[in-house]
Specification:
homodimer; mainly alpha; Arc Repressor Mutant, subunit A; Tetracycline Repressor, domain 2; HTH_TetR (chains A, B); transcription (chains A, B); repressor (chains A, B); DNA binding (chains A, B); transcription regulation (chains A, B)
Chain lengths: 209, 209
Amino acid sequence: MPPARGDRAARREDVSETVWQVLADKGFGGLTLRAVATAMGVSTGMLMHYFPTKRALLTHALDLLEKRTAERPRRARPTEGLATVRVMLLDILPLTPGDTARNRVWVGSWDLSLADDDLAAAQAERYTRLRASLLPHLEAARDLGELPALADLERLAASAVAFTHGLVVQALFDPARFPEEVQTAMLDEFLASARRPATAAAPAPAPAP
Amino acid sequence: MPPARGDRAARREDVSETVWQVLADKGFGGLTLRAVATAMGVSTGMLMHYFPTKRALLTHALDLLEKRTAERPRRARPTEGLATVRVMLLDILPLTPGDTARNRVWVGSWDLSLADDDLAAAQAERYTRLRASLLPHLEAARDLGELPALADLERLAASAVAFTHGLVVQALFDPARFPEEVQTAMLDEFLASARRPATAAAPAPAPAP
């Protein structure tokens, strides 16, 4: 019946919200059936109607992370080329409390993912897609003359992802030293360095027509 | 008596080695008293003579990680300037099986460290020291004319650490795509981009005398 269904859906939402809070505070190492039950004020037995095993709880946590990442607000992408790349990388950095919580859960998930062949393969695939999603915008940047004509764009995409993920980690551990303006300035410097031709003395060839 | 003492020390060594193996295979999420006891073929009760609590086991794991990192073999540092920076960053990357196991444990420890204020502060301090350890070599590089005279060297140290740690993560998840030669080439390109003056058109001022 509709009301009961609504209650059930609302309760599922509550459970998910609590799982997310426990994750954001305590990480995967602190995500236990008991911790979630305590945070909800219910018994572990009651929670096991939702998650019969620890594994089911971890799977739900990873699904939540995917879902919240996919549904996160993103910046408008107004222009082609490096400006778009910049915005896509800004969307990854921990610049707001919500972004910070999500990044904390991502970084925490690496411990679990590295220990499980299927999860590791899924993560590798995700990073391959992220690099691939940058590529058309790097190509546009090259065609616009924003990047050297001979730049290795796949390599540049990999470097941009590496730089951004490493900056996420430093900013999570030391938010006072890496506030929004520092993270943004570091990203802008990284992109500026990509614009420069390979040697300062010899200008890069003109961009392809 | 000496023999008994030797046995005890040898047994401690065995316990540490097993803790390290479990960590490298299963991460912090898989590091339990039961998993270590099973891997050693002893009872959990027996293992609790070494680690009375899960917390004691985690603390030992973090100590092991510090110790093995401090004692790892490092490359010779033959020259001043960027060549030294390069070697220091190569020493971080997962280029050998031992380096890979240690990096896997480091990345896995972030989940735990981010959830604990003291551990997070210790980690932030460690990264501050790492950036500071690069600084004199970046200054030497600037004085040698390898870097633009006006480069922000603290910022560059932070970018170098971010890039290197992010590359560690990508290489751990996708070792086939990031073998030694790709990691090394990416690092060399990162350092080459730091050498370039801020704009291609305007050459950097001459290095300070």
